[in-house]
Amino acid sequence: MKYKVLQMRGGAPDKIQLHHDKNKIILIHKDFCNLVDYTAEELVKLFHENTYILPADEGDILHANKLQKEMFNLGVDQSMILLPQVKLDEGYLKIMDYQAVSKDSDFYKNLEEYTGVKYADFKSYTIEEFEKLNINSDDIKVYKTTLGSGSRGVILVNPNRIHLGYKYRNCLVSDEFNKFLSFAIQNNARIMIQDFIPEYAKNGNKLTKINVDFFIRNGKLIGYKWDKTDPSEVFTNWNFGWFYRSNYTDSIMNSLANYLIKKLGIYNAIMNFEAFSDNESETWLIEFNFRYSNSTFEYQAVGVDPISSYIENIDIMRAIPYGENKFTRYWQCKLYLDVENYHNTK
């Protein structure tokens, strides 16, 4: 059986060419398009056509929450939307509540207690509270909105890390800061001021960037991929990395999955998180992405189609072997016209 998967907002080349088994998946690309562009009636029609929706934006969780009752009234639950799902007593599936997505939510506050994964100390403010603060532009701090907004809602003030590029600054720059504040105001977001993650674990080990994709199906962890990324590329994209698996990573992933399942009620999910870790004793979370990420395609390196595996509830825990295995992460460059089922909607 082939599954139609409507892939939202496939911007970067690896998102557009998400690895999939063509014998099982018909991948349909919808550029410049998110779940928020669909009404409940349109989604119900897609679901009756046996089409799964693969959103790429956490704002779609909020939209799905708003559509839930209307979809249920139209006789369809939200099982075909591939965002984290909760199972109701009646057996219906709905998308998780958006409240937990906020970067200052109880999910983050209680993370270390339940999983051992640390989250740097922070304070959260309303726009009005934030504007009254006497901020020292030289303070070494992370400024970010509570939205899952990626780089649009982040400023990093740390002169000791300027060499890493990205959004690191010597001090708060007025133009950039005003854009950051405007973004928060436009989206009615709270603003966080957070400490930096330390460079070293308590045992003296260097903390380095990791990226993790994982899958929960029917209330069980069915697979994860823990990347130790190219150390010269601290942020979104990297040219190579290492799949890493050990008793330590198994322990972290099992505790995280249990936390999500038992505390948030997550029943099904394709998710990602970024962190710094010494990969043996200490892990510091940067943020969770309550959606699939643009690194999901890396399963191609071990011959696994994660999307059809998720849909069919196939356990892929063994896909990543124990130890450290280097992989190359390359842009799958081609003409847009040569991308199968490409739809230009703008």
Could you explain how this protein is built, in words?
The protein has 346 residues and is of the alpha/beta class. It folds into 3 domains: 3-78 and 338-343, no CATH class; 99-117 and 199-328, D-amino Acid Aminotransferase, Chain A, domain 1; 121-194, Dna Ligase, domain 1 (2-Layer Sandwich). Helices cover 23% and strands 28% of the residues. The protein contains 9 helices and 18 strands. The protein has helices at residues 13-16, 40-48, 59-73, 106-109, 111-115, 127-131, 174-186, 247-263, 306-311; strands spanning 3-8, 25-30, 51-54, 85-87, 93-95, 118-119, 122-125, 141-145, 154-157, 168-169, 191-194, 208-217, 220-229, 240-245, 266-277, 283-289, 323-328, 342-343. The strands form 3 sheets. Strands 4, 5, 6, 12, 13, 14, 15, 16 and 17 form a 9-stranded mixed beta sheet that branches. Strand 8 and strand 9 form a beta hairpin. Helix 2 crosses helix 3. The longest helix has 17 residues, at 247-263. It starts with a strand and ends with a strand.
